[in-house]
Amino acid sequence: MSTTTADTPQVLLEHHLKALRLPTMLREYDKLARTCAVEKANFPNYLLRLTELELLDRDRRATERRIRQAKFPVVKSLDSFDFLAIPALNKTLVLELTRCEYLARKENILMLGNSGTGKTHIALALGLAACQRGPSRPLHHRRRAGWRIDRGQRRKAPTPLSKADRRLRTANHR
């Protein structure tokens, strides 16, 4: 005959939450239960709050993971960009691009300009905005073509060859 203790349901609940990979619920369920008891909230409200916490935390972790996977050389946002320094830049267009609608349309963004005009800063900010919006494909930086979306292709993207590399390659194929 087995004996049960008052802690058994709590131990089982914690085990199940770990097995279901619900770390926020595991971390917050007891504290939230006490808060809801003080507020005399019913069980569905308690469960709703608990699941909302889990979803918010998952979204936060997913955004952090996308940013990490993008391997940006530095994380920049448009909050730190000085639009007044470059009056010719169309601020409305740049802010519209942060909505990331071009991703759904599978369009590219090409930025041209002199050195020091903020192209890299804007590209990094748009990449960050895309990570925060949650694209279905990871972003990658192409050395000469900027950020691209990984479409699951297994082939390596061709890299530009220098003149010396082209001469060597041509000489080896003769």
Describe the 3D structure.
The longest helix is centred in the N-terminal third of the chain and has 28 residues, at 43-70. The protein contains seven helices and two strands. β1 and β2 (146-149) form a beta hairpin. The chain has 174 residues and is mainly α. The chain starts with 7 loop residues before the first helix and ends with a helix. α2 packs antiparallel against α3 and α3 (43-70) packs antiparallel against α6. It is elongated and about 70 Å long. The chain has two domains: 8-68, no CATH class; 78-149, P-loop containing nucleotide triphosphate hydrolases (Rossmann fold, 3-Layer(aba) Sandwich). A two-stranded antiparallel sheet has the order 1-2.
List keywords for this structure.
two-stranded antiparallel sheet, Rossmann fold, mainly alpha
Topology of this protein?
Elements: H1 8-19, H2 23-39, H3 43-70, H4 91-97, H5 101-104, H6 119-133, E1 139-142, E2 146-149, H7 163-172
Antiparallel strand pairs: 1-2
Identify low-pLDDT runs. Answer: none
> What would you call the shape?
elongated
Biggest beta-sheet profile: 2 strands, antiparallel
Strand order of the largest sheet: 1-2
User: What is the C-alpha radius of gyration, as a whole number of Å?
Assistant: 25 Å
Measured between the Cα atoms of the first and last residue, the distance is 85 Å
The total tally of domains equals 2
Percent range for helical residues?
Answer: 40-55%
Question: How many beta-strand elements?
Answer: 2
Overall pLDDT level: 81
CATH-defined topology of the largest domain: Rossmann fold
Under CATH at level 1, the class of the largest domain stands as Alpha Beta
Secondary-structure class: mainly alpha
CATH superfamily of the largest domain: P-loop containing nucleotide triphosphate hydrolases
What percentage of amino acids are in beta strands? under 5%
Order of helices and strands: HHHHHHEEH
Q: In CATH terms, what is the architecture of the largest domain? A: 3-Layer(aba) Sandwich
- Provide a count of the helices: 7
